From TrEMBL:
The lineage of its organism: Bacteria, Pseudomonadati, Pseudomonadota, Gammaproteobacteria, Lysobacterales. Residues 36-215 form the FAD-binding PCMH-type domain. The keyword Iron does not apply. It holds the Pfam family FAD_binding_4. SUPFAM superfamilies: FAD-binding/transporter-associated domain-like (SSF56176), FAD-linked oxidases, C-terminal domain (SSF55103). It comes from Dyella japonica A8. This is FAD-linked oxidase.
Amino acid sequence: MTDARLAGLAARLPNLRLLTDPADLEHYGRDWTRRWTPAPLAIALPGELAEVQGIVRWANEHGVALVPSGGRTGLSGGAVAATGELVLSLERMNRVLGFDAVDRTLTVQAGMTLHAVHEAAKEHALIYPVDFAARGSCSIGGNIATNAGGIRVIRYGNTREWIAGLTVVAGNGELLRLNRGLIKNSSGYDLRQLMIGSEGTLGVVVEATLRLTDPPPPSQVMLLALPGMDALMEVFALFRSRLTLQAFEFFTDAALRHVLAHGAQRAIDGEHPYYVVTEFDADEASQDAVLAAFEQGVERGWINDGVIAQSEAQAAALWRLREGITESLAPHKPYKNDISLRISALPLFLQEIQALLGREYPHFDVVWFGHIGDGNLHINVLRPENLSEGDFIKQCEQVTKLLADTLQRHGGSISAEHGIGLVKRAYLGSTRSEAEIALMRGVKQAFDPKGLLNPGKLFV
Ligand code: MLT
Ligand code: ZN
């Protein structure tokens, strides 16, 4: 790549912001994985749809690889540009384009943060219900590219359920307006859904029409301390049978220690192996129901202790114990696994994998947490001080191979909500059959014939 080509792009799109400063290359060339050294060619920050299309066409003419980029909060290396790609950041395209009260849809540009989407929905007394801790930094386009899940999936489902329409620039530069906000559309392949979760390998999401819904009723937040992993599933079944859950999240004592060291406040005395943060609809009936569920859990030996938030501030403090985990682990550069199983398959899988890790990798500090009510666990492995970074990654890859094999036997997936990116591409075959992967490659070829969109991500 010569500067002449970049100069050609600048001449063709005179208002396009292009950055080549080393600090910008470093900033925009990485995501939260922090494992690759950023080395993009340049950063393009389009301000309008026509510029996105112009960049993709230019890339096709010159054979330049592109990395579509949102808030770069991803944990699988999906937004990493480490081999001379042009980063196509949507961050300047962050406006609301329209609200339709009859359709209850909000149309936004892809670079809006999830938090800004929440705020925009609130202005119309509605909510966009997908939510997770990175809300302030992640972008809606990135959420769509990974079919992001988070802490409310148990109630509202993944991002996929809330996308009524997408405007996308495909890898060949074609502009596609997919589904256009329709509720029903039985007219062949749903290319919108194909785009969701495709990790920027098929097209660049430029605009999205989001479904909104009524806010949930007032809720209560409760923290529970549990004696063991088996109790977790029992308590989940118990609470789900008696309450209308909005969230049901778990973490281990090891996770709690990291969050406390990071400034959070302990909410339950003593040490307990497992904790649950749950949020549920609060009404008169739920007061008796939660007490009854709690007492039953204690009687059966599934619950050690519990606390219900008495104010919004207390509720936020309880949530911080769960939502602060990722940030508190970040300085340790954990090796992340994000696995998915049918809920019914969890207990056996957990027994097996915990025994396996304890036997084969007793020197690893393994931090478990996640969305247990969705069958989604985050298994973070921290590097022991006496192990070099290189050896650590090698051993973590062996751990992931063990996980992938075990997941395959239990019918699970190596990625629940973080995506495959660079981190998990070697394990795609544990989750998808050869026939499926061949079809996926065919789809990629159809949308992006020159293979310029996020090359190296998703597939080896
Ligand atoms: C979470 O649930 O907190 C996120 O998926 C982030 C993580 O796994 O670290
Ligand atoms: Zn998560």
